[in-house]
Design goal:
By secondary structure, the protein is an all-alpha fold. The protein has one domain (9-195): Fic-like fold. The chain contains eight helices and no strands. The termini are far apart.
């Protein structure tokens, strides 16, 4: 079953919003598990689940890595043959750097790298934002308070988000990894969330 935005824009938008609510419920469960089990709780099955829920009813390929080319504006993600290995490396980086990076650095890596790899056909941004928030909460050791959480704030402040992604891409293309653009962007959003915890 599939609803397309071009043929049924209102239904598509309604399903998208309901999917985001379901994804947040699932994400909350995963955060609770991660708080108990630590860094190794994040794996490809968690990522598949978050993606599947985000695109249920609007994409037939939710919850599995892409097996075809995809294009995102000026960014050309890696060839689909490389996706499984890149995702293994993505998860390994998080496990290995859990104690070396701050919560905003780790979350910034998750947000940037998932967008860079673009491992899914649909819902990459929604999945990356969910993973970002998972990493912020679990690395911080708590489900963070606030009425409007970081993923919602990212959706609202896309200009600085895209600028930070492009800056880390530029640095990566030059052969380096510097997460400071993502870190400072997320730190500002997190501060705003924590100040708005009524």
């Amino acid at each position: 079953m599939l609803v397309t935005e071009s043929r049924h824009p209102e239904l598509y938008a309604a399903i998208l919003e309901k999917n985001l609510l379901r994804q947040y419920d699932l994400l909350t469960n995963f955060i609770e598990i991660g708080l108990q089990h630590g860094p190794t709780a994040i794996d490809k099955y968690m990522l598949w689940s978050l993606n599947h829920v985000a695109v249920s009813g609007i994409s037939q390929f939710g919850g599995r890595f892409r097996e075809e080319p995809i294009y995102v504006g000026n960014h050309i993600p890696p060839h689909f043959d490389a996706v499984p290995d890149l995702m293994d490396r993505f998860i390994s980086f998080i496990h290995e750097n859990w104690d070396n990076l701050t919560a905003p650095q780790l979350a910034g890596y998750g947000l940037w790298r998932l967008n860079w790899i673009h491992p899914f056909i649909e819902g990459n941004g929604r999945t990356a934002r969910a993973v970002c928030y998972y990493l912020l909460c679990v690395r911080s050791g708590t489900l963070l308070p606030g009425r409007k959480i970081v993923p919602e704030r990212i959706r609202e402040y896309r200009g600085p988000y895209v600028a930070a992604l492009r800056e880390v891409d530029r640095i990566w293309d030059a052969g380096n990894l510097d997460l400071s653009p993502m870190e400072s962007y997320l730190a500002d959003l997190l501060s705003a969330q924590l100040l708005d915890e009524d």
